[in-house]
Amino acid sequence: MDAESRARYQKWLDRADDAAIREQLKQLSGNPAELEDCFSEGLRFGTGGVRAKMGAGPNRMNAYVVARITQGYCNCLSARCANPSVAVAYDTRAHSEEFAARCAQVFAANRIQVHLFAEPTPTPVLSFAVRALACDGGVVITASHNPAAYNGYKIYGADGVQIDPQAAAEIQAQIQRTDPFDDVQIFSREEALASGMLRPVPDRIKGEFLRSVSEQSRLSCSTPRDFPIVYTPLNGTGAAYVPQCLLEHGYAGLSIVPEQAYPDGSFSTCPRPDPQSAAALQRALRLAEEQNAYLVLATDPDCDRLGVAARDGKELKHLTGNEIGLLLADYLLTARQEAGDLPARPVLVRTIVTSELVDRIAARFHAQVGRVLTGFKFIGEEIGRMERQGELDRFVLGLEESCGYLSGGYVRDKDGVGAALLVCDMAAWHRAAGRTLPQALELLYQSVGRREERLLNWQFPGAQGSRVMNDLMHAFRETRMRGETTRTDYLLDSETGLPKSDVLQIRFSDGASAVLRPSGTEPDLKLYLSADGADASACRTRLDDLTNVFSGGVGMPPSKAY
User: Fold this and answer.
1) Which of 150, 299, 409, 443 could form a disulfide with 238 if both were Cys (CB 3.0 to 4.6 A apart)?
2) Which domains can be identified in the chain, with CATH numbers?
3) What is the pLDDT of residues 20-56, one digit of tens each?
4) C-alpha to C-alpha distance for 413 and 304, rounded to whole angstroms
5) Predicted model pTM
């Protein structure tokens, strides 16, 4: 460990007064590799905020780091706004409530009005509250679908969208100037309340949010909804929102996985609470088999993602994020066209790594498809742009392959509550026509062609992880792939029409494509593969071939497929 890192470690030993942190600091002295990782540098704040393992040191999530980030954010808000205000929410993870309280105490000490949610709350509700309360920004403490060891910090602008790169850079610069022990202004909870700067979020916000979700429903009141549904919030925030929403819309056959219905920051029955993964749905699938359920729904801990499994005869089929998105796009466009309320120039917005079949579906309805970089914040920005131009009514659906969906402009982030209602409505609509969701998907493939996707994920944790990923991206940029025809480097190519980003897209002569990018919130390198085929077997054979090409091309380590 270098001298600067050792000095940081000694300062934490001398100044940290939290008993649990002090004990972790002492234990780190016997683990040199972990010690170096915790103190080699501080967390970097980006457009996705920060996300890291919880623990001691500037490169971990803890109360001191949370206070430091918040002070940096306060400095930016105070310089930009007169009498600024923020909303603060948190999920069900370990220490989330504590971290949110620490945020609120720092905001209050900096004379920034803070509206603090009183209970674990979905991320989309935070996005909604920022605009509903006319705040200048918002914070949510969450690590989304990461394992229990992680937590995170995300910031939203006054428009309810995650902050843009310029704002993130300004906040990062302020964080770097802030010493976690000497420069943070913080009240006790009692002082924050007495100052009048700390207020609870009004109870009306939940009702207003759920009413806005309900307005997105396109299902006829006469359509039967009498099929059994199993839902799991994966011990997260959705438990207080999704069941209420579905029951209010007549889905009385709803059951909740009992051991995953309550907050559990250890996620003891689901180590990685990621609804993209079939493994996360195992408890729900087991209950669904017992009850012969027609539909299985799962939301992640902060309830912005939705996973789905649907009955097809005797089997329950786990649908990928792309498959759900394709079905939703087709359903909303068709149902709204039949109801006569499809706008004249409908718009769908997808990320560049989401299935290109969205474009083929949209073409059948003369709909426009906006393409944005990976991250739902870019979809939120497009919604805001349409609203400013007086064209918000054109927006039909925003979707990303990682199980994120939004219909309507009531929030500016993906919403698991609204997505759950839309999927139930879609299932009821197809069921009334005699189709299951898997059958509807097959019919859709017959109409627009079959294209399947695969995500490969390489993890590079530790202090050297970023350097290794940068080296690999460079190696791929220098390597010509077998069958390659064109490539787009979003870091260099000015003709993409999108902001520069560390993304490389390669197309092949048979129409297959590959997109490689480092994750913005995790120590992961992600490879998105897609291929056309006459049937599922042909698609998967081509995806296997692409997997082998990339895995062996530049000496990549073993990957994990989702």
Assistant:
1) 299
2) 41-202 (3.40.120.10), 210-448 (3.40.120.10), 451-561 (3.30.310.50)
3) 999 999 999 888 889 988 998 788 888 788 999 999 9
4) 8
5) 0.95
